[in-house]
Write the structure tokens for this entry.
Amino acid sequence: MITVAIANQKGGVGKTTTAINISTAMAAIGWRTLLLDLDPQGNASTGLGIGADQRRLSSYDLIIEDAVLSDCTHKTSIPGLDVVPATQDLSGAEVELVQVEGRTHRLADALNRNAQSARYDICFIDCPPSLGLLTLNALAASDTLLVPLQCEFFALEGLSQLLQTVDRVQQSLNPELGIVGVILTMFDRRNRLTDQVAEDVRDCLGKLVFESVIPRNVRLSEAPSHGMPALVYDHHCAGSRAYIALASELIARLPKERVAA
Ligand code: ATP
Ligand code: MG
């Protein structure tokens, strides 16, 4: 299983929208896909139609209670896509973890000790908007990082802090951690500032930035309220098409030896 953390400590930049739709795109082309919701807000779980009352065991149980992975996974309406949902108790985990031995490796240990990980080809982790212990657990457990970046004025400032964190994680917790790419989100062609930011980001980060960009698209923001990915809600819309393009770019960038035949 290849594990991809989707992280940016800035709030509302499109992490969850990216997590839901890239997971759906991967499942649609036959990859056995797991989406692990590591945000106490639980938006990825809700957006995939897993209501709060349906969330038996969750990512909290996986990290804190040593639960078995297969007990925490829930099927979604999309064939080939399972979710480990998040519940509100995950907000306490950030504090509880401080006391726990090996607190940054709880998730990595949980995924490694569970042979059921092998049932999946790829796992995406939807991170909360912070660089706290939950995000550190995600980075310690992942092969690579996917960064959604909203095309707005302060985008690059937040990014340097994230890249410093990645650097620290590589030096201590997880030397193997890579960065698979930065995806520009909520791109609005009619807005000159957006265009300028996108150009600056590409100048600064070069090939790290995916060629695909995710447009600002109302269908992407409507879909979660129907409990379904945009790719199912309206697979022709510009947002869905952009996520399909991102999925194929992502596959081309994943380590070849790890990509399932
Ligand atoms: P948080 O930091 O709170 O977890 P996030 O980074 O996960 O937020 P999302 O929840 O994916 O961000 O997106 C924030 C809001 O913007 C949501 O209401 C979402 O529906 C909307 N949104 C995300 N991407 C797009 C887009 N490309 N076009 C239009 N709306 C979008
Ligand atoms: Mg989110």
